[in-house]
Specification:
Blueprint lengths: L1 H8 L6 E5 L4 H11 L4 E5 L6 H7 L11 E5 L8 H10 L7 E9 L3 E2 L12 E2 L9 E5 L2 E5 H12 L16 H6 L4 E5 L12 H17 L1
Parallel strand pairs: 1-2, 4-9
Antiparallel strand pairs: 3-8, 4-7, 4-8, 5-6
């Protein structure tokens, strides 16, 4: 999955930081030495305290004066398509958003972002935190583009006061989105195909995503 992600994102990014559990740091470093076509670094998250802390662990590997934006992707989100990433790139210069990310409309959502009458994201509902979700909702795809200011200044500001989720006991990244939307420009772009949003957490999801990618390859 890591190799597939690196292949998919190489045309869009200049360097990679992989955040890993301590037990995987050296095997992944050894693998990337022979497989990665981009400069890479490894950041270690000692304890599984949540995705917010995982993202912040990468900060020492990122030079703020070197890059304009930081892209974040969950490693199980291998279905994201180049068309969607290209759409994300086009959205970035529009008002220099603090955050841009692709979304998908789906029934029985795992995540839902409520919006106000002006279309601004005002919250996040998460099934894993035992929130009540609508029958149809708008979800992220595990891919996010942050301005360097949003990553290096706004995210630590948010992290300094955020509490753990009541269902997971972890510090989640997604509540940062409505927090940031109340302070700065956050834009979304539509996905190309709803299958992109499937994260691989079970054997059934692995089989479904693999079959879908094979179908797309055979048609192209």
């Amino acid at each position: 999955m890591l190799d597939l992600l690196l292949e998919r994102f190489t045309p869009f990014v200049e360097a990679v930081v992989v955040v890993v559990h301590p037990s995987f740091s050296e095997p992944i470093r050894d693998h990337l030495r022979t497989s990665a076509s981009l400069p890479f670094d490894i950041a270690v998250q000692e304890q599984p305290t949540g995705m917010l802390d995982a993202i912040l662990r990468a900060a020492p590997c990122i030079e703020p004066d070197t890059f304009d934006r930081v892209w974040i992707v969950w490693c199980d989100q291998v279905g994201v398509l180049p068309e969607t990433l290209g759409r994300l790139v086009k959205a970035e210069p529009a008002g220099s958003p603090a955050l841009a990310f692709p979304v998908v409309r789906r029934t029985e959502p795992y995540i839902h972002f409520p919006r106000d009458a002006d279309g601004r994201i005002t919250g996040v509902l998460q099934r894993r935190e035992h929130d009540t979700l609508p029958d149809e909702g708008e979800s992220d795809m595990g891919v996010f583009s942050l301005s360097m200011t949003a990553y290096s200044e706004r995210l630590p500001e948010f992290a300094a006061s955020v509490s753990v989720g009541r269902g997971t006991g972890e510090r989640n990244f997604l509540p940062f989105i409505p927090w940031l939307a109340a302070r700065d420009l956050v834009v979304t772009v539509p996905c190309t195909d709803p299958h992109e949003a499937v994260g691989i957490n079970t054997p059934d999801e692995l089989a479904a995503v693999e079959a879908w990618l094979h179908r797309r390859t055979s048609r192209s």
